[in-house]
Design goal:
- With about 400 residues, the protein is of the alpha/beta class.
- The protein has 2 domains: about 200 residues, 3-Layer(aba) Sandwich (Rossmann fold); about 150 residues, Response regulator (Rossmann fold, 3-Layer(aba) Sandwich), CATH 3.40.50.
- It is about 40% helix and about 15% strand.
- The chain is built from 13 helices and 14 strands.
- It has a 4-stranded parallel β-sheet with strand order 3-2-4-5, with helices on both faces. A 4-stranded parallel β-sheet has the order 7-6-8-9, sandwiched between helices.
- α4 links the parallel β4 and β5.
- α2 packs across α12, α3 runs parallel beside α4 and α5 runs parallel beside α6.
- The longest helix has 24 residues.
- About 0% of the residues have low confidence.
């Protein structure tokens, strides 16, 4: 082979290598908030105000992302977690979302808490085409990819949960009189709608009282007295943690002993049942999709062992008995999986695409049998729950895992 021919072949080979390298570097795609070294993630939490008990979720996520960063990050990129307080006030949420998107230039907003706060920013986030990902609320409206393709939930929907309670009541207590206490906002009304849909034609006769409260009220004591006076033998408690603990305490004070259903968002042993007094919380029924860190049955569970180790090493100031720490850990793990799947294509569009392509993913804090699945037309990652009853100082699961798709 002539020297010229050899040089020509070498030249062609180098050209091919250069072209391949060029393609490889060209495959890296970034939107604002992403680079070779960083993924900037926005978050809004009620660190103060009436729903401040949930602030632990944001603090857990911050600790988990720090753990990920200390181990080298995701595909070599560190997560820059920017979390602001909105005090559970929708106007403040709007202000913080604008700051995160327009000033901080985050890649997306992740797991912001509350139905009214997220409702206040949903249209803005979708008009800006910035993901509002894994919102920390179970409102059914987050599963609407046709109208809001940039918004996705994470936890089971509120309507699904109360439909499960309704099924249980119809089967076991078909002649019951039901009293409902609910928060007077989208969150409370969503739960109430699920209950009525689940009871069907019997809703109008079985529900004898619907009492709403405002988050600005210092206590719900007067509402509880009013509900007791109805003579109802089933109490559906649709409240956030502060008011849930008050309702459990007040029930004991006034000697009202209905069958008590407590919504999952306030089923935390550490932040609700313990302050309310375990003796006052006996036999309350709720529903779960996550393992309960206070339950000894998970002590040797590999996934929970990892969670306990994380709490001890990375978040020692957190309370592992607070359900919020398990939520924060589980949803943070789900986000890490989505970001891994994104690879070097860290565009907002690809973040949503990967979030909508999860197949049988499990964070090991989910109850056995529950998996995360999403699709282009399914923005409800978790749609199964299991009923549980409070006994002694812990929840005891009973019955089967129930798939609770609304309308399913």
């Amino acid at each position: 082979m002539s020297v010229i021919k050899k040089l020509a072949i070498l030249s062609a080979a180098f050209g091919l290598l250069a072209a391949t390298a060029g393609t490889a570097s060209a495959q890296k795609k970034y939107d604002p908030g992403a680079s070779d070294t960083e993924i900037k993630v926005g978050n809004i939490m009620p660190y103060s105000g009436p729903a401040s008990a949930y602030g632990v979720i944001g603090r857990t996520e911050a600790a988990y992302f720090k753990k990920i960063n200390d181990a080298g990050g995701i595909n070599g990129r560190k997560i820059n977690f920017v979390s602001y307080d909105d005090a559970y006030s929708p106007p403040k949420t709007v202000e913080q979302a604008r700051k995160l998107v327009e000033s901080d230039e985050v890649l997306f907003i992740f797991n912001s808490l509350g139905t009214p706060p997220n409702t206040a920013i949903q249209k803005y986030m979708n008009s800006k085409k910035v993901p509002q990902l894994f919102v920390a609320t179970g409102a059914t409206k987050w599963n609407d990819p046709q109208n809001f393709p940039w918004t996705m939930g994470w936890q089971p929907s509120y309507q699904s949960e109360t439909q499960i309670y309704a099924k249980y009541i119809l089967k076991n207590y078909p002649n019951a009189k039901i009293a409902v206490l609910y928060q007077n906002d989208d969150y409370g009304k969503d739960y109430l709608k699920g209950l009525k849909d689940g009871l069907g034609s019997k809703a109008s006769t079985m529900i004898v009282a619907e009492e709403s409260y405002e988050t600005s009220e210092p206590t719900i004591d007067s509402h509880m007295v009013k509900l007791k006076a109805t003579g109802a033998d089933i109490f559906i408690n649709i409240t956030t943690p502060k008011f849930a603990a008050q309702a459990i305490k007040k029930n004991a004070e006034i000697g009202w002993k209905p069958l008590h259903f407590l919504n999952n968002v306030s089923a935390s042993v550490g932040s609700v049942l313990k302050p309310a007094g375990f003796e006052n919380a006996q036999d309350i029924i709720s529903a779960a999709y996550l393992k309960d860190a206070s339950d000894k049955q998970w002590d040797n569970d590999p996934g929970m062992k990892e969670f306990y180790a994380f709490m001890a090493k990375d978040f020692p100031e957190g309370d592992k008995l607070d359900g919020g720490t398990v939520v924060g850990y589980g949803v943070a793990q789900t986000l890490v999986q989505v970001l891994k799947l994104c690879g070097d294509n860290l565009t907002r569009e690809n973040v949503m695409k990967q979030a909508a392509s999860l197949k049988d993913f499990r964070t090991e804090v989910l109850l056995p049998g529950i998996k995360i699945n999403t699709g282009a037309n399914d923005f409800a990652p978790i749609s199964s729950l299991q009923l549980m009853k409070f006994k002694g100082d812990k929840w005891e699961l009973f019955g089967d895992v129930i798939s609770a798709d609304v309308g399913g």
